[in-house]
Amino acid sequence: MAAFIDAVELRKTYRVGNVEVPALRGVSFSIQRGEFVSIVGPSGSGKSTLFYLLGGLTRADSGRVIVDGDDFAQLSDAERTAMRRRKIGFVFQKFNLLPTLDARSNIGIAQDIAGRKNGDQAHFSRIVDLLGLKERLHHRPSELSGGEQQRVALARALINKPALVLADEPTGNLDSRNSDIVLAMLRQSNRELGQTVMMITHNPEAASYADRIIHMRDGQIVAPEQDPQWKGPCDWQH
Ligand SMILES: Nc1ncnc2c1ncn2[C@@H]1O[C@H](COP(=O)(O)OP(=O)(O)O)[C@@H](O)[C@H]1O
Ligand SMILES: [Mg+2]
User: What pTM was computed for the model?
Assistant: First the structure.
C-alpha cells in the first residue's frame, strides 16, 4: 500500500538579494496513514520549510510531495488550495487567529471555507468541550490567554476532521498545562479518527507523544545521535 505522505528528494533554497540560503538539501521520507510523527532539530534546520512544502503552502525547487495520492506539482494552485481545505488542518506557533472574530467564528470560518456551512454541530461541541472552550466562545483573540488562543486554533484545525494535521511548534508559546491539553487533543484525534499528524517541536516531552521521531539538521534528515541538542528518550547517549 502506498504511504499517506511521500516526500522525495525535496530541495529548497531561499534567495535574499545575492545570498542563497539552502533550507532543504534533499529530504526524503514516507509517513503512513494514521501515524503521529514528530520532527525535531535545531533552529534553522529546515523544519518550517518542510512544513510549508507538506502543506502545499510553498513549492520546492525540486523533488516531490505526494499527499494521499495527490502530487502537489501536478495540481493547479486552485486545486492545491481546494485539497488543502478539504484534507489538511494547520496549527502554527503563533496561533494565527483572525483578530476581529470571536472564538466561535474563528473555528466556524474553517467550516464555512470548506463549504460546510451547517457543519457537524456535534463534532463542534465535542471539540469545544474537550479543549475547555465552552465559556470562551464569545471572546475575541485579544480577550483570550495564549493557551486559550492556541486551543481555539487547534479547534479550527480539527473542525473539519482533516485527514492530515500539520503543526509547527504548536506548544512553543504555551505553559505546561496548555501544552498538555494541546498534545493530548492531537493524540486523541489521531487515535480516534485515524488522522495522520506531523508535529514540529523543540520539546522532547512533546515529541514523546509521537509514534516516531524524525531528526533534522542543516536541511537534511539525520540519525538521532547526530542531533547534538537532542536529549530525548531515543537518544542513545542518555
Ligand atoms: N523566507 C525566508 N527567506 C530567507 N531565508 C529563509 C526564509 N525562511 C527560512 N529561511 C532560512 O532557511 C533556513 C531554514 O529555516 P526554517 O525552515 O525556518 O528552519 P527551522 O524551522 O528548523 O528553524 C534557515 O537558515 C533560515 O534562516
Ligand atoms: Mg521553524
Answer: 0.93
Ligand 1 atom showing the smallest separation from residue 16 Cα: 4
Describe the crossing of helices 121-130 and 146-158 by its angle, rounded to 10 degrees. 150
Total domains, the chain: 1
Residue 162 sits in a domain whose CATH number is: 3.40.50.300
CA of 147 to the centre of ligand 2 (A): 19
- pLDDT the model gives residue 231: 64
Tell me the CA–centroid distance for residue 168 and ligand 1, in Å: 13
Give the range of the structural domain holding residue 182, as residue numbers without chain letter.
35-58+76-226
CA angle 36, 42, 43 (to 5 degrees): 105
Cα 86 to middle of ligand 2, angstroms = 24
Rounded distance between C-alpha atoms, residue 87 and residue 180, angstroms: 25
* Protein residue closest via CA to atom 16 of ligand 1: 46
Structural domain includes residue 123:
yes
Which atom of ligand 1 has the smallest separation from the CA of 50? Answer: 17
Q: What is the pLDDT of residues 151-205, one digit of tens each?
A: 999 999 999 999 999 999 999 999 999 999 999 999 999 999 999 999 999 888 9
The Cα 76–Cα 37 span in angstroms is: 28
**Mind listing the pLDDT tens digit for each residue in 105-117?**
999 998 888 777 6
